[in-house]
Amino acid sequence: MYLALARMGFQRQLAYRTANLAGLATNSFFGLLRAYVLIALYGARPSVAGYSLPAAITYTALSQALIAYIAIWSWWDIIRTFRTGEIATDLSRPCDYFRYWFAQDVGRAAAQLLLRGLPLIALYAVFYRIVIPATLLQVLALLFSLALALLVSFSWRFLVSLAGFWVGDATGVGRMAWTVATFLSGQIMPLAMFPAWATGVLRATPWAAMINTPVEVYLGLVRGPHLLAALAVQAAWAIALIAFGRLLLRAGVGHLAVQGG
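Above: the chain's sequence. Below: its structure in token form.
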């Protein structure tokens, strides 16, 4: 059943061809703009915070490519069900509520990576000299990190969406949460370029696990014990957010009232 849900999520994204092309064009435009800003920054120095210019440009490409994959902005699927009352139907389905939505999100993410993520990286490769993973271990670590990034991202979005049990329309809560994730995940700039006192703290947050960690794994900036530690932080946050989300779901179901019943 969950495989069928994932397939449905994938096929749903294929139906919006114009939206996918528009999203790819928008991400590409702002991505290339960010790359030119970095080129200007590196004009006076060979490296910044341990990043060479090709690595920094590649970071920009990957962070842009992952926007749709992890749905860092404007994910309202569960929040919308509170406004429409569909939440009652979803909770009555003979399946686990978290897995029901996660399976659909896996399909959505796979389609977005295929339709918007990979083409954007290919476009960057046409204009710039980007970094390519050097070893098979690096590639395997990247795949594992990307899977964990999606799990952390979905668990965070799931947790935020459950605010709808108490506020009815959690759109405002969602907007604040997505904004926090944007600035603290490394989507705007690598966390290594933040002040030294902030870098270590931010790398230990769930937001860094969504973008900064998989990109640093791709670039080979974390190796050996540091690579294992980075993946462990991602896994720990996935487990913690899932557990907290399930506790909040249980509390929310007890609080739920749909049309007075």
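Residues 59 and 215 are 6 Å apart (CA to CA).
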